[in-house]
Design brief:
With 287 residues, the chain is an alpha+beta fold. Helices cover 38% and strands 33% of the residues. It is built from 7 helices and 13 strands. Helix 1 packs antiparallel against helix 6 (207-213).
């Protein structure tokens, strides 16, 4: 692969036997490890004024659009990764889907409604934590998928009588949306109301790439409670065999863990593994 920076042309080649292992101890029993091969960049040519002018005239507009698309895609992928890791690190295990009866197509209004909804929920559930993804319905209306901690069965009402938590949450959402007719998606709630954090993280994070693939201009499509992700630990290995480093990444997953996802790129330059603590009583399969 080649890159042009200014008028200098650089060629990148994988460095044989050199890899970086990045490990993420996310907490709540979740771990991720990424093994990537190092790339060395070598200066191969400096463009003359004539060559630079020719390339700019022939590829300038197309190259600018290609860079814009690449930047949008990288932003979407970074958001996907952050959403996945936030859900895991916060130990969120339930899905709450907030919808509108009316066809609300203004995402800024939807974001403002979500902010107010969270503020009001925290009056009855102090410390309410969430990670939310915004999605368009087929008709164009926005709705929000929130990863949250499992709600208690009942919550106290104003008169001291306990009521079902989902009824309280629905009432709060409707008080925010008012004439737009807010509701909770019951069908999705029954299906997804309790899941492992890893599965919920995968479900929620996919929406970060959806807007990109649908051709929408990129905008921040998620919101989350304030939460600091643990720092990753990186180590560089030189002269190492890929198989040995993959075994090391597997070892990081640790005893008592279940492998959720493993991936090896077609060129063998990237390996990824994610694991989570096994639920009580689970039959562990060695990983």
């Amino acid at each position: 692969m080649r890159r042009i920076i200014g008028r200098d042309v650089f060629e990148g080649k994988p460095i044989e036997g050199e890899y970086t292992l990045t490990v993420h101890e996310l907490g709540c029993g979740h771990r991720e490890a990424v093994l990537s091969q190092a790339v060395g960049w070598e200066h191969v040519h400096t463009l003359t004024e004539h060559e630079a002018g020719y390339l700019e005239a022939k590829y300038g507009a197309a190259d600018a659009e290609e860079k814009r698309e690449a930047n949008l895609y990288r932003s979407a992928r970074r958001a996907k990764t952050k959403v996945r890791r936030l859900v895991k690190s916060m130990g969120l295990d339930s899905l709450l889907t907030l919808t509108y009866k009316e066809n609300l197509q203004d995402i800024d209004t939807a974001k403002a409604h979500l902010k107010e909804f969270v503020r009001r929920v925290r009056r009855v559930l102090p410390g309410f934590a969430y990670v939310a993804a915004f999605e368009r319905q087929h008709r164009g209306a926005w709705h929000m998928h929130l990863a949250v901690h499992r709600l208690p069965q009942n919550l106290p009402a104003a008169n001291g009588v306990k009521v079902k938590s989902w009824s309280v949450i629905r009432a709060i959402w409707r008080s925010v949306t008012q004439e737009l007719g807010g509701n909770i998606d019951e069908k999705k709630r029954k299906r997804w109301s309790r899941q492992s954090s890893a599965k919920l993280a995968g479900y929620l994070s996919k929406y970060m790439l959806k807007a990109y693939h649908e051709g929408e201009a990129w905008a921040n499509r998620f919101s989350a409670s304030a939460h600091t992700l643990p720092e990753a630990v990186r180590q560089v290995f030189k002269g190492a065999a890929l198989a040995d480093l993959i075994a090391l990444a597997y070892a990081f997953a640790g005893d008592g863990q279940c492998a959720i996802t493993t991936y090896l790129s077609r060129f063998g330059d990237v390996f990824y593994i994610a694991s989570e603590s096994a639920p009580p009583g689970a039959l562990l399969v060695p990983i």
